[in-house]
Amino acid sequence: MREADLWEPAEGGGVRCLLCPHGCRIADGGAGICGVRRNRDGRLVAESYGAVSSIAVDPIEKKPVFHYKPGTRALSLGSVGCTMRCLHCQNWSISRAKLEDGGVRRIEPADVIAIARAESCEGIAFTYNEPVIWAEFVRDTASLARDAGVYTVMVTNGHVTEAGLDYLGPVIDVWRVDVKGFDDETYRRLCKVRSLRPVLEGAVRAKERWGMHVEVVTNVIPSVNDSEETARSIARWIRDSLGPKTPWHVTRFFPYLELSHLPPTPVETLHRFRGIGKEEGLQFVYLGNVSEPGGEDTVCPRCGAVAIERDGYRIVKRATSDGSCAACGEPLGVIE
């Protein structure tokens, strides 16, 4: 275990965590909402430091990240716990797990770099559960990765304080963030957090303050966040706050957990979201969790040439030059 960073003492031997917007006030012996940051004798401890529940080698496209180092491999790893309790969580077996449940092994940051090199991975992705909550391990590992020339990706729900983002910002290359709706009511119902504002503000700060590459994912859920108003609001925010070349992945929902009574997202809904995104000026809107011809291709917005053709997570054709369309030279916002 390691003493946590980003906390302050509270009355009566308690502590207040400053990492995520919950701002948990934790009594001695207790843990925050995430379940892995605990008050031990008046000090906050990051109990999940180095506690890995899942590790695998993935194509970067699986995160999904399409415009950063396309075609490369990322060592993906996660721990347990989360700052949200999403009704449809696909990784609930670890996001809702506790360390005392077992199923984790302890590794050191240097071990992650060694595994990445052994597996010929160009990057490391902190994913599977919410990576913000083991921020100390992420930062220590990402610092070594930067020294080693290995890129880093946060696959995150974006629920982080400004201080938490600035703690990670100097060593993270990609902020792949979920935007699960566009109003506080949806976030309270779906994710059990008060507001989406920290998610939006964090994504902008990741890009503008820290120069991270940002991509956005929205899992489109029937009757929850599938309205035209939601689609247009998210698309306009991406366009105005992150830029029209920012990739937006609209993905298909499948029934799960507390939302198992809902149907899968109709493919027509995904196409409608994609159309709305383009109407609002987004240049790259991708379809996810569904096999649709061209749904994951990177198409030049100027000349219409297919710059990157994908079959699932595999690139089958590539016509780019320094991140631009090889046919006409239009910048695509792709970092190669």
Give a brief outline of the structure:
The chain is an alpha/beta fold.
Written description of the protein model:
The protein has eight helices and 21 strands. The two termini are 37 Å apart. The protein folds into three domains: 2-46, no CATH class; 51-296, Aldolase class I (TIM Barrel, Alpha-Beta Barrel); 298-336, no CATH class. The model has no long low-confidence stretch (mean pLDDT 97). Helix 2 crosses helix 3 (135-148) and helix 7 crosses helix 8 (267-279). The strands form six sheets. Strands 8-9-11-12-13-14-15-16 form an eight-stranded mixed sheet. The chain is of the alpha/beta class and 336 residues long. Strand 5 and strand 6 form a beta hairpin.
Keywords:
336 residues; TIM Barrel; 3 domains; eight-stranded mixed sheet
Helices and strands, with pairings:
Elements (H helix, E strand, L loop, with lengths): L1 E2 L3 E3 L5 E3 L7 E2 L10 E4 L2 E4 L4 E2 L1 E6 L13 E6 L13 H4 L9 E2 L2 H10 L4 E4 L8 H14 L2 E6 L5 H7 L5 E5 L5 H8 L5 H12 L4 E8 L7 H15 L5 E5 L14 H13 L5 E4 L9 E2 L6 E6 L2 E5 L1 E2 L2 E2 L11
Parallel strand pairs: 9-11, 11-12, 12-13, 13-14, 14-15, 15-16
Antiparallel strand pairs: 1-6, 2-3, 3-4, 5-6, 7-10, 8-9, 17-18, 18-19, 20-21
Tally the helices: what do you get? Answer: 8
Structural category is alpha/beta
Q: Identify the strand order in the major beta sheet.
A: 8-9-11-12-13-14-15-16
Strand content: 15-25%
- The first-to-last residue Cα distance is 37 Å
The CATH topology of the largest domain is: TIM Barrel
CATH class of the largest domain: Alpha Beta
Number of strands: 21
Whole-number mean pLDDT: 97
What's the name of the CATH homologous superfamily of the largest domain? Aldolase class I
Uncertain stretches: none
Give the biggest sheet: 8 strands, mixed
How many domains make up the coordinates? 3
**What percent of residues adopt helix (DSSP H or I)?**
10-25%
Choose one word for the global shape: globular
At CATH's second level, what is the architecture of the largest domain?
A: Alpha-Beta Barrel
Order of helices and strands: EEEEEEEEEHEHEHEHEHHEHEHEEEEEE
The value of Rg in angstroms is: 20 Å
